[in-house]
Amino acid sequence: xxxxxxxxxxxxxxxxVDSNLNIxxxxxxxxxxxxxxxxxxxxxxxxxxxxxxxxxxxxxxxxDIIHRLPTLLEDLINNEAxxxxxxxxxxxxxxxxLIGFVCDYLKECYKHKEAYIYCCR
Length: 121
What we know:
Strand order of the largest sheet: 2-1-4-3
Structural class: alpha+beta
Largest sheet: 4 strands, antiparallel
Number of helices: 6
Shape: globular
């Protein structure tokens, strides 16, 4: 199972992106534990931005989350050694893949600042 993030235009149409905004659910524990270290809602930022902001899925503005993604990325990188213990034992998902996903997500959000986010979980 995986999370797929879509960027939508004002009319709810899918915007074509250059990156694959798809990540395994096996990595959500790392993101959640990273947030707990700093008292931040990192898990919700990635997997449940609609609940984080109290907005319907597909109505979350990129502008409302883009400024939080660099903090998540920094927290992951700065705590990599501690967070590696939460890597999935089944081997589905890597720390490097998680970092790449967050970077791609940030890049696509930057390119499509007027878009909306829809998370298919």
